Automatic annotation (TrEMBL):
The enzyme's E.C. designation: 6.1.1.1
Tyrosine--tRNA ligase SYY-like C-terminal domain residues: 339-417
Key words, A-Z: Aminoacyl-tRNA synthetase, ATP-binding, Cytoplasm, Ligase, Nucleotide-binding, Protein biosynthesis, RNA-binding
Assembly description: Homodimer.
Entry-linked Gene3D superfamilies: HUPs, RNA-binding S4 domain, Tyrosyl-Transfer RNA Synthetase
HAMAP family: Tyr_tRNA_synth_type1
Residues at which ATP binds: K244
Stated name of the protein: Tyrosine--tRNA ligase
Function: Catalyzes the attachment of tyrosine to tRNA(Tyr) in a two-step reaction: tyrosine is first activated by ATP to form Tyr-AMP and then transferred to the acceptor end of tRNA(Tyr).
Gene Ontology CC annotations of this record: cytosol
InterPro entries reported in the protein's UniProt record: aa-tRNA-synth_Ic (IPR002305), Rossmann-like_a/b/a_fold (IPR014729), S4_RNA-bd_sf (IPR036986), SYY-like_C (IPR054608), Tyr-tRNA-ligase (IPR002307), Tyr-tRNA-ligase_bac-type (IPR024088), Tyr-tRNA-ligase_bac_1 (IPR024107)
Protein family per UniProt: Belongs to the class-I aminoacyl-tRNA synthetase family. TyrS type 1 subfamily.
Residues the record lists as binding L-tyrosine: Y43, Y181, Q185
Length: 421
RNA sequence: GGGGGAAUGUCCCGAGCGGCAAAGGGGGCGGACUGUAAAUCCGCUGGCUAUGCCUUCGUAGGUUCGAGUCCUACUUCCCCCA
């Protein structure tokens, strides 16, 4: 743990500090000076393990956002097209399942677009650039690599790194391929220094070891001083890992997690987290956040709505955010059916024929199986047009249509409109 | 190389005399209470054309009316001896 710089002179570090982004840094004074001079070219790497990033990645994206916003330096987004083929062992007990090269490429293309929401890309100045480490890592020759890079790594030291040590201590398998991950990431750092003049690597706290390894390699290869800065691992006040919901992760890609659901996710933040999240996940001025933090009791709901709308606006745009806010207001506060609720289209003739209650919920995506719906009915969780269903043989029919839609609800929070077309 | 132990409900941990859709817990979901929060209490947490049928206990065979449970081989992991 490094001491926090009592009074950073760069806008970049000042903002990161007061908003709670900083977990560890290698040399705050050095970072501060480079930021002040606008030469803090910085990269964050993202592995392509899924078709979308999720909110766990948001912290580091926000840091790149502030880097650009404050003119501290140029953001470099590194796609891990190469490293994903190897698999990072950091912070996990088990080896990831190997992805095919095709899957990685698909994921990479699917992930890319989200960054332009938070940072501006371009050729010059502080406009961001995107790189892909497949470009250089896949061309490495094993023997040359060992001679030029491998000789700078001490296995003794590598064994002491958390990502490796924790695995070994728990008697968990660590394959040779994973053991190499940190070497590749370290090499990336030096390569990005060579290509773009990158001097800082940021990432989650679990990346500390990998980043510092890169700094060491840089010193031996003569890159000059490189820096590390990590953000905390996001957990909720009650200690749960953030971003897990019923359906899985909170994805940043709209097709996988709708703007409405995204708004709802933030709306349901625990009281104790609201202030912290406003600082991290919105760009509202600190004075405004301080105001919101003063709200007590049920008034905190107002702060949660601001959080939800601002966070959603950053990712999906102001319009989508306000539409989500409005839909929520109609649904939860006025108790009317908002026609902007998520909807699923169903052929009109199917509804005229009649659809069983269970299949209807499965088609709406509210349940995974008929059995789940039957059990939910027994739990009193199922409603059609806001009327609780108690009979499992209930049929959703044309008589349920209001303005061409039927409102299906699973519990009080999950609603989907079945739209006859 | 020799000896011993382990793999359980496709989220995780874990009990399981030959009759088991399989104890318990965590997590998740739902209900109540609230404020679309937390905490607490209660319920649910294999699938289906559903008083029945089908698929599940590392893999493949075998014994048996019947196997998660017994036998054999294989795979993977752990421990001890060399």
């Amino acid at each position: 743990m490094s001491a926090t710089l009592s009074s950073p002179s760069s806008a970049f570090l000042r903002i990161l500090t007061e908003r709670g982004f900083i977990h560890q840094a290698s040399d705050l004074a050095g970072i501060d000076a480079a930021a002040r001079e606008g030469r803090l070219t910085t990269y964050v790497g993202y592995d392509c393990t899924a078709p979308s990033l999720h909110i766990g990645h948001l912290l580091s994206i926000m840091m790149l956002h502030w880097l650009q916003e404050t003119g501290a330096g140029r953001p470099i987004v590194l796609m891990g097209g190469g490293t994903t083929r190897v698999g990072d062992p950091s912070g996990r007990d088990e080896t990831r399942k190997m992805l095919t090269v095709e899957q990685i490429e698909e994921n990479k293309n699917s992930i890319k677009e989200v960054f332009s929401r938070f940072i501006r890309f371009g050729e010059s100045g502080h406009l961001a650039a995107m790189a892909d480490n497949a470009e250089w890592l896949t061309k490495l020759n094993y023997i040359d690599m060992l001679r030029e890079i491998g000789r700078h790594f001490s296995v003794n030291r590598m064994l002491s790194m958390d990502s490796v040590r924790l695995r070994l201590e728990r008697d968990q398998e660590l394959s040779f391929i994973e053991f190499n991950y940190m070497i590749l990431q370290a090499y990336d750092f030096t390569e990005l220094h060579r290509r773009y003049g990158v001097v800082l690597q940021m990432g989650g706290s679990d990346q500390w070891g990998n980043i510092v390894t890169g700094i060491d390699l840089g010193r031996r290869l003569g890159t000059g001083q490189l820096y590390a800065l990590t953000c905390p691992l996001m957990t909720t006040a009650s200690g749960a890992k953030m971003g897990k919901t019923a359906s899985g992760a909170v994805w940043l890609k709209g097709e996988m997690f709708s703007p409405y659901d995204y708004w709802q996710f933030w709306r349901n933040t625990e009281d104790a987290d609201v202030g912290r999240f406003l600082k991290l996940f919105t760009t509202l001025p600190m004075e405004r956040i301080a105001e919101l933090e003063r709200l007590q009791g049920a008034e905190i709901n107002e702060a949660k709505k601001v959080l939800a709308t601002e966070a959603t606006a950053l990712l999906h745009g102001r319009e989508a955010a306000e539409s989500a806010a409005e839909t929520a207001q109609k649904t939860f506060e006025q108790g009317v059916t908002a026609d902007t609720l998520p909807s699923v289209e169903v052929p009109r003739e199917d509804i005229e024929t009649g659809i069983g209650i269970a299949p209807a919920f499965v088609r709406a995506g509210l349940a995974a199986s008929n059995g789940e719906v039957i059990r939910a009915i027994a739990n009193g969780a199922i409603s059609v047009n806001d009327a609780r269903v108690t009979d499992r043989s209930r049929i959703v029919a044309a008589s349920d249509l209001k303005d061409g839609v039927v409102k299906l609800s699973f519990g009080k929070k999950k609603h989907v409109l079945l739209r006859a077309v």
